[in-house]
Amino acid sequence: MTTTAETGHAPGTAPGDWERAANARAARLETLLGDPYDSANPHGLRALFTADDQRTPPHHTEELLDRTNLAAEFVPLAHGGRLTRADLLARTLRPVFRRDVALGFGHGITSLFAAGAVWAAGSRQQRHRLARLLLNGKRATILHHELAHANALLRHEFTAHPTPAGGHLLTGRKDLIINAARADAHVVYARTDPARGPHSHSVFLLDPADAPPAHVRHLPRVTTSGMRGALFSGLHFHNRPVPADALVGRTGEGVALALRTFQVNRSVICGVITAAADTVLHSAVRAATTGRSGPVARRWHKPLTGVFADLLACDAMATVALRALSLLPDRAHVFAAAVKYVVPDLLRENLEELAAVLGGRGYEHDNPEYGALDKLVRDLPVAGLGHAGTASCQSVIVPQLRTLATTAWFAEEEPPPELFRPGADLPALDYRLLAVAGGGDFMAASLLGSAARLARSRNVGGQITALAALAEAFAAELRALHQTCRQLPRHPPGLSDPATLVLSDRYSLVVAAAAVLGTWEGQDGSDPFLADAAWPVLALSRIGARLGIPVPDLPDGCTQHVLHELIRRYRAGLGCDLAATALAR
Fold first, then answer.
1. Contacts (Cβ under 8 Å, ≥6 apart) of 380
2. Is the whole-model pTM more than 0.90?
């Protein structure tokens, strides 16, 4: 096989065609998966619920995904695959996650998470080998290093001891690895230095078939409370030989590679799990409208419109983070962590609100029209890595707050408008360009720019006046953070100090608001609803309430306008995302 890296050029479509091609693949996958609410559909929710109850992967749907060569989405275009930009990758995966988060992980993005280090720092031979493996429909999995506050997925780790021949001997165990028994490549983050610090770990690309049986033991499958259809099991290595050419990058580069590549993983997760919440919102709208000849009962207006606004906000945050990985790869690190910090929490709150609308029907496993709630409530903590995921994001944000306050806030220029502009051509995602904590904060600059522009329209009235007031309230919160964070010690106490954690929470909500404002400003008017200020007013009012800042009363007609659009999309078979994606019916 000849990869494009060897020929020196990337074949196929030009950057202007990437988005059209990704949209076409996403639409085709949506059509192939069919109506999720059709009980006779072998790829519908009933079949997926049954597989979940039986704690087994949905094999028929996995076979369908294999026929579409889904794994090619995780291989960069330069290596013969389809991966061009991270935001387009998320778009192509959303049809899978709309139906089943466990399927999306077990037969999807786990391979991407494993491959990231290889695309970022692997040798030419390693990239060639992994690309060929994935393009042939095989799987890769990631064997994480242990993190503080670890859950079962991130607990325990492996140690690699050097040998005189230049290789290593790998020892240790992990009890919970997705696809441990059926992956064709293992990307292992192993400790190579007993000392704590930035050079403690290294990354290895291993072929499971090369492991001598006497040096590896497969541990029993473990069933988790969420994502029960995914195959989790463990591995125990005892002096497993690792050849010298298995090292990815340099010895001791593992922590840096994790920090660089995990920003892609975090952003992609946020870009796809909102599609699963979209399914639950559609179920709630069905519950609120079925059997009624009149309008939706007033008691459901607030939860339905609030969750819809939150999903649009989450989509805005994730999309901006994903696009920043291409456009601003050296500065996206902190914002990606902030998005991953905020989005899962918003979705958890959203599911609680929708549970009130759905009632007991949301927990009926044999009811595809309403039962998606229960499964997502169980799957979301695993997908977002629960407390471990939150702590991981805080560990990125907290050490940067003082630097951002002293060097970036109120000093940096706004990002290019292409960051927010739908349809704008962006560079390809290049893992090699991803950097860690470069000191800039383009989202804080974007917030200040949005607030300044809206201030000029403060007296227009209605939604625009409310939006201007909200933008100024978030800008005022940034000013307050600026004063506080400038006083932080050069070496903050980290995650042991509750006051510092509160600052990371406040900061994350502020830049979340910046993403909403930037997305609204970036609209070209082709979608009248997105160009209208009602949805950002409602979304920012809810974010502001979570932050505890003063928010204006919602203008007259704001909730009704958002509710009308939600009902319209439901009846037209359109998603509750920024793209109003056409759904299979």
1. 101, 226, 273, 276, 344, 347, 348, 351
2. yes
